[in-house]
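My main concern about presentation is that the manuscript never shows what a single data entry looks like. An entry of this sort, consisting of the sequence and the corresponding backbone structure tokens, reads as follows:
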Amino acid sequence: MSLGLVRNYADGKLSPDEESFDLFQDVLNQNRRTKCWTEAAVALDSHFFATLPILKEVSASKAEMAWLIYDLVLDPTSNTYRLQRTRIVYTIFESALITLTSPI
């Protein structure tokens, strides 16, 4: 695993973050093979995004992917949590694929 995420050795199963990353790699690789990629958006928790390698950013007009970064924020008046987008990272598909699948 290129991100160095930890496997749960107690039961041998992948943690949810690893399962999500494995699925993401499968989707990226499938689109790379079929050349059917147009544009996509990926929504991630800010803590998970922080574990990813640094992605090369481009302007929104040149982007093929938008990484929508969210946090859960407590609303003190209603005492409930809400999703708040904290950042958008725009990338080129091939660049993101190489960065995410390259060994550390």
Observations:
- The radius of gyration is 16 Å.
